[in-house]
Amino acid sequence: MDSSKDIEQQDMMEMVRRIGNQLRQMRKEQKLSLDDLADRTGVSKLTLGKIERGETNPSLTVIWRIADGLAIPMSSLFETEKVIQLSRAGEGIYFTDGPWRVEPIFTHSSSGTVDSCRAFLQPHSTYSAEYHPTSVMETATVMEGSVRILVCDKPYELQMYDSIRFRGDSSHSYVNKTDTVAILYITFERYV
Fold first, then answer.
1. In the prediction, which pLDDT does 79 show?
2. How far apart are CA 188 and CA 140, in angstroms?
3. Is 68 helix (H, G, I), strand (E, B) or coil?
4. Which residues, at least 6 apart from 98, have a Cβ–Cβ distance to it below 8 Å?
5. pLDDT tens by residue, 104-157
6. CA geometry: angle at 143 spanning 140 and 148, to 5°?
7. pTM given for the model
8. Alpha-helical regions (H) of 42-97
9. CA distances from 62 to 44, 104, 179 (A)
10. Which of 79, 70, 94 minimizes the C-alpha distance to 8?
11. Is the pLDDT of residue 78 over 80?
C-alpha cells in the first residue's frame, strides 16, 4: 500500500474533523440551531450536521456559504491553537475542484477579515468560481506562469507578479492556456 496516500488521507480526515469541530463551536457561540444556519447559508441541515460530525468533506463553495452565513473569514473554520504558524507549499490542508487546487496559507488571520491562499491551476484548464459572499474583495497575484482572468466576461492578461482586485461575487474565471502550472497568491478580504 502507498504510505503517502495513507498520510494524505489521514491529513484530509483531520481537516474534515477540524472543520466540523470549528463549525459546531462557532454556530453555538452565535446561538444558532442547525435550522437557523441552514436558512442563513442555503446549505441543508443534513449536510451541516454531517460536516459537524466530520462525516463529509465540504466543497469550497459550501465552506464559502457557511463562512458567509456566520459572517466569519473562511480560514476561521481551519483554526488551530498555534501562536506561530508556518505554511509550506504542498503541505497541510487543501481543496481541489477539477484543475484548481487551493491551499489556505494560514488558518487564522490576526484581523479576522482576510483569508489568503496559494492556488494552482493546471495547464490548459479553466476554473470558474461558483460562489463568494457579497462582502468579499478578491485579489489575485500571479506568482508563476501567466493567467487570463475573466471578470464579468472582460479578460485581463496577467503575467508573473501582476495583480488584479475585484468584487468576489462578480462572475469570474481563471484560465491557464500554457503548458505549465500557474501559481497564484489570492486574498479574500471581507468588507462592511
1. 66
2. 9
3. helix
4. 125, 127
5. 776 555 455 678 889 999 999 999 988 777 788 899 999 999 999 999 999 999
6. 55
7. 0.59
8. 45-52, 60-70
9. 10, 15, 31
10. 94
11. no
